[in-house]
Each structure stands twice: as structure tokens, then as C-alpha cells.
């Protein structure tokens, strides 16, 4: 089997990332040499690859679904928003300046060459490449400089399927409209549709799907059900109700309640997914001081803009609530940007985030932070709370220690992070994915809060993630026309697909 496929979406968060992961896993389970590819991602959820670069977390997860180590080859361009109008640009895993929405357009022609060459190279290294679009191809105002949707599909002659989220409503109009606004040469590559997150009896949807095929000449290749057990890493958004995961009931009498502050520019918020994999651990994102009341553990997660998010923490009243929580002896954990907020000062002499200046931290740890121009990337290992741990680092801030007790001792003996009993902090992402370390943290939380909570000795976060990927593959196998998928991957889009004129066209 050889070929490629592009999964586009009617909107952001329509299900592209999970569908790509599911198709990749389905193929890999059949022995196919398959790899993921996303030409351009926009996300502050990223990981550090073994080849030393930075890519979107969704592509790292898709690589795992394929049985591959994450690589910069799977996501050559990553945009990390620092504000509503500017983003840091990461090319081949390394920072390559910042852009506004308008100035980015000027870079697109050169980036199109980079991503098309990267896709071509990947196709020589693997039998099948499953590509993920970005946003929606219906954003026709961006089509002239598109490098991730139909621009990529046209450059690589990629057959394309469009997925829509029926849970949002109007999915048939979204699917039809996405196709109808495309120019004819783009439409010629769109070969079918997928409906995502359907609840109820599929027979009720059949008349609509039949009408959609009559209108467009393209079949719906399957209807994926709403899977309540699916909590795999979110790429574009957090759960609408703020809840994370589907934890099993507690082993003791009490739940542990974790409140994760949803910072305006939160990055790598998926760090807390591992907590929600534990029985009896309820994890929820919060945005108001009142939501910290009764929390056993408060988490300050990573941030793309630490200084401005710290200012928001103060203006929202959450800083006062966080300090009161910590000073009452209740557990607090800061990760990366959230850890930097815990120190004495944050100095940005080069204006890495905004205007140069020094800013007061929360003062909960004896260390300061200075921002370096170059980003610190790494996959360190060490020891924390008596457990061997591994993680990854993505930050500009460098800690200047003034006697802070470390949380981690790196493999070369260097101190890292903060451990002052109820207040913990680290620059390392992924620490909570280490099962032994996570158990030690939860044991400490239970002891400090007096909860009757027992940690599971059998929970494996890696196994839980594997089970999620297998669930995605099962959904693909059971609910999609996999024979049609194979045909598209191997033979491309069928010739002579109907051109659908946009509404109002003569």
C-alpha cells in the first residue's frame, strides 16, 4: 500500500487531529508503514522531539499512533500565538522570528516550498502519509497563500476528505458550503465527507447524507459516534465544561479536586491529562477566584506569555486566591511559565515577550527568572521525589537560584525547580506522565489536605494513551468505509468529480 491523504475540516476543532490519529493507528495495526504530516500548525501545545526541535503536540501523538518517534519532519511550520495578532514562527523545529497576520502572508511562498519539499521527502521514507489540514479550506480569504489545506493538496495531488462536527449543529450545510466555496481545481481533490461526534440513531441522518451526495456527487465515508470515553489530548480547545478526562471513582472515600488555572495564553495545558487518568482525581480548568475554593491542588500551567498572563492573574483576583491557597499550606504546582510566576522577579531585558522590563513574581520561591533570547529546548532526565523521571523543556526563562530547594536533580547533578513542601514547581513538561512521580505528588496532596485517598499502583499513563489511540482506530475501522479510504490513499481522488457552484452562482 502506498499513497497519501489529506484530512481537512469544516472548522477548527472539527476532529481533524483525532481522525488523522485514528487512521494512522488503524493503518499501523495492519502493518502499514505510515507517518503523519501537518504542514502548518497553530498551537501553543508543543513537544520537543528527539531530533531537538519543537512540533505541535497533536503531531507527536499522531507519530505515536504510527509507532514512530516524534520528528520535526511531521510538522515543518508551527505558529505559537503570543497575542491576538502576533505569533512566533517555528520552522523545522527552531524559532524563526515573529509575524503579524499580515506580515506572515509575505513569508508564505517560501514556506510553501519548505512544506511541499518536506512532504515529498516524507513520502519517499514511508509508504503512506496521512496529512492534517489547518483550520478550514473554506477560509477563501486566505486561499491565495494557503500552505496547509488545498494549497498543499494541489501541490502534492492529495485526495482530500472533509470532516465536520455535528455536535455543533449545521454539519450538512458546513460540508456542502466548504466544498461549494472552493475553486474547481480544489474541488476536484475533495472526494468525500466524514461526520464526527454523532449522537443517536444514524438512520435519522441517512436522508440528509443521501441528499448531500446528490447535491455534491461525493459520498459520506462514515459517521463517527460521540465517544464519551475519548479524552485524548485536545489540540485547539479545552473541554467546554472545563473538565479534563474521565477519571474512575476513588479507591478511598474521597476525591482529590484539582483546579487548573486557564491562563489566557496557556501552553501545554495537556500536562494535567495524566492527573485525570488516575482514579479519584477530578481535574477542572478554572477562570475565577471562587473556583479555587475547596480545591486540593491548584496548578499554574505553562504560558506562552508569562508576564502578561501573570498580570491577568492579578487583575482577575486569582493571584490573591492562589497566594491564600498556598499560604494556608495547601498544595500548589507551577509548570514552566506557571513555575516562573512563583519566583521573586521575572526579568525580560531583551523584550522577548513584550517591552523590556523587570516584573514582580508571586514570591513563593527563592529564585528569579531572566528571559534569554534563545529558547531552551531539551529532553532531560533526572530524579524527583525519589523517582526516575523524564520530561521536555520549551522556555526562554532561565532560573537564577537563591537557595530554593529543587524539585528535580538532573542526570548531571544540577538542581531544577522548586519543592518547599506544599509548593512545587518545574520547567519540565511531561513530569506528571511519569507514573511513580505522579503517585508521589498525589500522596503528598492527600497528606497535606487530609483526604482519604489511595493512589493506584497500576495506572500507566502510557498504557492509557495507547488505549485511547486504539479506541480511535476501532472507531475508524467500525464506522468508516475503510475500503474507500484505501482506494483514495492508493489511487487518489476519482476523475470527473462534480463541480458544485457556490450559492447565487449562475
From TrEMBL:
Transmembrane segments: none
PANTHER family xrefs: COBYRIC ACID SYNTHASE, DETHIOBIOTIN SYNTHETASE
Protein family per UniProt: Belongs to the CobB/CobQ family. CobQ subfamily.
Pathway(s) where this gene product acts: Cofactor biosynthesis; adenosylcobalamin biosynthesis
Name of this chain's protein: Cobyric acid synthase
InterPro entries, per database record: Class_I_gatase-like, CobQ/CobB/MinD/ParA_Nub-bd_dom, CobQ_GATase1, CobQ_N, CobQ_synth, GATase_3, P-loop_NTPase
Enzyme active site: 336, 429
UniProt keyword annotation of Ribosomal protein present: no
Keywords associated with the record: Cobalamin biosynthesis, Glutamine amidotransferase
CobQ/CobB/MinD/ParA nucleotide binding domain boundaries: 6-231
Keyword Lyase appears in the UniProt entry: no
Lineage: superkingdom: Bacteria
Pfam families per the UniProt record, alphabetical: CbiA, GATase_3
Organism: Actinomycetospora termitidis
Role summary: Catalyzes amidations at positions B, D, E, and G on adenosylcobyrinic A,C-diamide. NH(2) groups are provided by glutamine, and one molecule of ATP is hydrogenolyzed for each amidation.
Gene: cobQ
Domain CobB/CobQ-like glutamine amidotransferase residue range list: 257-436
